[in-house]
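tool_call: predict_structure(chain=1)
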Amino acid sequence: KIIYTEKTKVGKTSLIMSLVSEEFPDEVPLRAEEITIPADVTPERVPTHIVDYSEAEQSDEQLYQEISKANVICIVYSVNNKKSIEKVTSHWIPLINDRTDKDSRVPLILVGNKSDLVEHSSMETILPIMNQYQDIETCVECSAKNLKNISELFYYAQKAVLHPTGPLYCPEEKELKPSCIKSLTRIFKVSDLDNDGILNDNELNFFQRTCFNTPLAPQALEDVKNVVRRNMTDGVKDNGLSLKGFLFLHTLFIQRGRHETTWTVLRRFGYDDDLELTQEYLFPMIKMPPDCTTELNHNAYLFLQSVFDKHDKDRDCALSPEEVKDLFKVFPYMPWGPDVNHTVCTNEKGWITYQGYLSQWTLTTYLDVQRSLEYLGYLGYSIICEQESQAAAITVTRNKRIDLQKKQTQRSVFRCNVLGARGSGKSGFLQAFLGKNLQGQRRIREDHKSFYAISTTYVYGQEKYLLLHEVMPDFDFLSEADLACDVVCLVYDINNPRSFEYCAKVYKQYFIDSKTPCVVIAAKSDLHEVRQHYSLSPHEFCRKHKLHPPQPFTCSTTEAPNKDIYTRLTTMAMYPAICLYYVRVSRREGRNKLKTTRDVLYFPKNLHMAQADLKNSTFWLRASVGATVFAVLGFAMYRALLKQR
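tool_result:
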């Protein structure tokens, strides 16, 4: 803290020495040495450095350096010296303002010393100055000789730094500033757990406990509401505190000098001194090892479910456009655009369903966990769920290579990249996953289309999320993100003779040696199939490279398209080594016993047994040897019995 004065003695050094020694000094030097007051003896538990300045001993350059380092500046004048009061506005305030950035002004405190020498107060002269300059936090009259208000002076100096009035309140208008109203409104909406526009007793108690670590006694709660009732007609509704009443209370706290109450609330909800949510609050640290993914955990889904229920006012299990806007009022911007309605499941009105809502959160967490943390921060996850930060909502999955080694996974979200030539039917494949047939897809505006689709599928009774990503058909520039996935869909149009060539080239260039499962989709299967202009037919290509035969698919249906293929894709993503494979079945038909061969897709009925067996290859070796021995012995016994007969 820096205390300024002029050559005329106003007693600023005496104030510092009286604070330290708790008595008026007999001899006063021109300037006191820098003093540090330890945190444990200050009311706010913050260490305080007091720096004295003297025009007689120090240069202007030294003064400017001290101004740049100061957190708060005390300008001392003598209450019995009009010239020293005039110099506050003619010299000191302009000099300080010239040396500080306009957007980060240092708070000022006017200190009227030597109050013991006069019987009148200087406040009538000082109040107009305080109203003229918003940087002035407060004015204190004191006496270094009588030790009057000495401790209070330095308490206010600390308070001006830790709990400044400037960002919160406009003295001229005698009301909260717009940025403060905006911040407190968000806090109110986050705390209004049932979204009825009122903080009831339970919500007020939770708010009190969250911010101040102690609940309000029933009588204290009633006293607070009575104060609001006496001053406003609509501050209390249905025995609960309305937003107007909530804002009035904070206005009252500030007007009564209890800025720390409002600041405690603001900082608990993540705000800094400029009433912006801090980076530490919005983006807590989260370790993300390579080849891992991020998912929401069970507690996060429960929280998001409560947020959905809070805003689904008509209880139709879908969010109307108005309900979506209401949900995101606690955000500084609208995070979801019109493309979201074509990324997740919607109802017949095109509104995002409960399942679609959770799917979008799952997608955001998987693709951009930092953005998901930011969104959860706006919703107040760490406060409502009483967690240290939003990072508690995130699960980082284990390395995918470990999943492959163990032939099992604990993940819930699987990514399928969909590749194919332009016009092959990739977008239709994505939208069909959301239950939209071709007729419904034609109503989607071009600027509202999405390159992602996500929904749930069930694999052996387990609910999993399948994320489809349409990759732009640029063969020469497929990025790592385009290739990193759990399963690949290669889509071609059976009615376009040049469509399959792209799939074949992409597979041979990027996936032929990959462990990522690949599926070829024969799209638009309702149309006439034409011969593909490629050296091999799609079936021959798949057989040569040991791929599953092309899977016919169409979204040109009267009802919602069939979703079996998406379950298969999820199963392949979960168990790439064991869950899907093809066997060649041969049989003789008719009297001439012609041999026909076909490929059959095989799903194990007992996946867990299949996993357990495949974990131990020696089991199969022993079983094979044993079966062979028994077969030989059985055949020998059969021959012996036949001879006896």
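agent: Confidence is low (pLDDT under 50) at residues 579-625. Proceeding to next step.
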